Amino acid sequence: MAITVLFDLTEKLDKMMDNNAPLDKIIFKYYLNLLPFYFNMFNSLFVFISVIFFTSKLAGNSEIIAMQSCGMSFNRLLRPYLFCATIIAIFCFIFGSYIIPPANKVRLEFENEYIKKIKFTDKDNIQLEIKKGTILYIQNFDLNQKRGRNFSLEKYDGKTLTSRLIATTVRWDTLDRWHVENYTIREFKGKEEILTQGQHLDTLINLEPTDLFISTKEIPQMNNTELCAYIDRQRNRGVGNLTAFEDEYYKRFATPFAAFILTIMGASLSAKKVRGGTGANLGIGIILSAVYILFQTFSSSFSVNGSLHPLIAVWLPNFVFAIVAYIIYRKGPK
C-alpha cells in the first residue's frame, strides 16, 4: 500500500502543486479515501499470499506432518482457513458495497477540483423511455444552462402512436419542472388528428437533468442499493449502454468469493514440504494470483465491450479458478 501511494503521489504531485491543493485535503480527502479503494482491489492478492506464507511455514517446520500423524485430516486442517475466509468475504462485501463508495465520492471530488478539471456538460441525441410507452428525445442539452434544443415527447399505446409533442426549446426551471417553448402537440384518435400549438407549456416529466448524463465515473460512488436502483431506472427508460454499471454491480457479489477460492488453493498448494521452502510456494502463488487478476481484467473488458454478458464475465474467473483450486486440493496432502 505504501508503494502504491508513492507511485500515485509521484504521478500526480505536479498537478496538485499547479492547482494549489492544500496539504490537509491531500492527506485526509484524497489519500485517506484512496487507501481503502486499493486495499479492497488487492484484497484477494493479500489473502492468497498470506495463506501461502503461513502454511509454507507450517509445512517447512513439519507441523502439518505432525498434525496428520496424530490423525488430523486435511479437511479438518482447512476448517480454520475457511472460517477466516468467511469473515474476510463478509468484510470485503460490506466494505466494497457500502463503505468505499462514499469514500470514492470524496476522493473523486478532490480529483475534479485539483487534478482533473474536465467535465462534460453537454450531450447530443438523447433518447430515453421515461416510462412505459413514453419516449423522450432531445437533440442537444446543456447541463450548465439546463436547456435543450429540438425536443420531442411521443406516447404510444402498444405500437400505436397516440400523441406527439415537439418544441424548439426545453428547459429545467427553478421550480424543478420541465418547461417547453414554441410547442406543437399532435393527438391521434383513430383517423382524427387534433393539433394544438402555443408558446409556453409546463410538462410533468419524471426526470432530472443529471439523469440525461450517464457517466461511468459515477459507478464507484454508488453503494449497492443506489447502483441497483439506478440500473433498474435507466433500463426502464430504455437506456441501452448499462454494461459497465451491471459489471460493477455483479462484481461486488463475485469478488468476495475469491477469498474462499484463493484460500483453498493457497493452503492446498503450500501444505506439502517442498524443496525451496517458502520462497518456491510464494513464487507460484504470486504467478497464480497475477493470472487471476489479469483474467478478471480481461473478462471485465469483454463484458464492457459487449462480447459477454456481465454476469458471465464477472463469475467466469471464479468458476475457472474454482476448478483449478479443486484440482490442487485433490493433490494436497491426505
* pLDDT < 50 runs, ≥5 residues: none
Distance between the termini: 37 Å
Order of helices and strands: HHHHHEEEEEEHHHHH
Strand content: 15-25%
The beta-strand count equals 6
Helical stretch tally: 10
For the largest sheet, list the strands in their spatial order: 1-2-3-4-5-6
Overall geometric form: elongated
**What do the pLDDT scores average to?**
85
Tell me about the largest β-sheet. 6 strands, antiparallel
Structural class call reads alpha+beta
Total individual domains: 2
- Helix amount, in percent? 55-70%
Rg is 27 Å
Architecture overview:
With 334 residues, this protein is of the alpha+beta class. It has 2 domains: 36-97 and 241-330, no CATH class; 122-208, no CATH class. It has helices spanning 2-18, 23-41, 43-60, 63-69, 74-114, 224-236, 243-254, 258-270, 277-304, 310-330, and strands at 122-131, 134-142, 147-157, 160-172, 178-189, 192-203. The protein has a 6-stranded antiparallel β-sheet, with no helix packed on it. A hairpin with a 5-residue loop joins strand 4 (160-172) and strand 5. The longest helix is centred in the first third of the chain and has 41 residues, at 74-114.
